[in-house]
Design brief:
By secondary structure, the chain is an alpha/beta fold. Helices cover 48% and strands 18% of the residues. It has 10 helices and 8 strands. The strands form 2 sheets. It has a 6-stranded parallel sheet. The longest helix is centred in the middle third of the chain and has 16 residues. The protein is globular, with a radius of gyration of 18 Å. The protein starts with a helix and ends with a strand. The N terminus is likely disordered.
């Protein structure tokens, strides 16, 4: 006798997806600021660039500026002139030295649980794609989305390609992935720390606010979403 329920569970379109934000969720802190500081210590960027980024992040924490495309364009300059392979090697070292010590234990435990039960894990971040890919490699995550950078002849130009994966853009990318995988959104999960990811969290059946900022904490409490500290 054919077990139709088992067939449905094992069908490709029944696979669940777990979306994980990066900054403030998987990693405690802002990867862009960490990257700039790291590259400064390694002599790869000047003091002026470090100072400008520091001012921007101070204003961001105070809510005076937003993570605009312009900010990502400036960050993209960190990769200018580097080959794709060189950048990947640099990001592997950066991940090991700077991001791994800052991994959020609860979020990583949740990620591993999703992997063990056969869910597809997708890291979604406004961070530069090479940074996102570096962490994805370390966590053995096969799917990730970030702010893509323009490449010419295998070398980064220092410009952003398309829009920064932030807010509505991140939710739009998640919708595309759900549609491409044929996944049931009600069976999927999302983890994030910031109110700009509310639209992403609303897409799925299991929303988790990870060490949430005040705005997201209020929304999570109102809607009964899980809060992970």
């Amino acid at each position: 006798m054919i077990d139709s329920a088992a067939m449905e569970r094992n069908a490709p379109n029944s696979a669940a997806i777990a979306f994980f934000d990066l900054d403030g969720t998987l990693v405690v802190g802002q990867t862009q600021r960490l990257l700039v500081s790291y590259m400064r210590r390694e002599g790869m960027v000047g003091v002026g660039f470090l100072f400008a980024v520091g001012l921007w992040f101070a204003a961001y924490r105070l809510g005076l500026v937003r993570a605009t495309d312009g900010a990502r364009e400036r960050a993209a300059g960190l990769m200018r002139g580097r080959s794709v392979e060189e950048a990947a090697a640099l990001m592997d070292t950066f991940t090991s030295e700077q991001l791994v010590p800052r991994l959020h234990g609860g979020a990583v435990t949740a990620l591993r649980a999703h992997q063990e039960q056969g869910d597809e894990v997708v890291i979604m971040s406004a961070a530069l794609m090479p940074v996102v890919e570096g962490l994805a490699r370390h966590l053995r995550v096969g799917s990730c989305e970030g702010t893509r950078l323009a490449v010419r002849d295998g070398v980064f130009t220092g410009a952003v390609s398309g829009r920064a994966l932030y807010g509505p853009e991140k939710a739009r990318a998640a919708r595309r992935i759900l549609q491409e995988r044929g996944a049931d959104a009600a069976s999927c999960s999302a983890y994030a720390d910031h109110e700009t990811d509310v639209e992403l969290l609303e897409l799925v059946g299991h929303a988790v606010a990870v060490n949430p900022r005040r705005g997201l904490a209020a929304v999570a409490e109102e809607r009964g979403w899980q809060i992970m500290l």
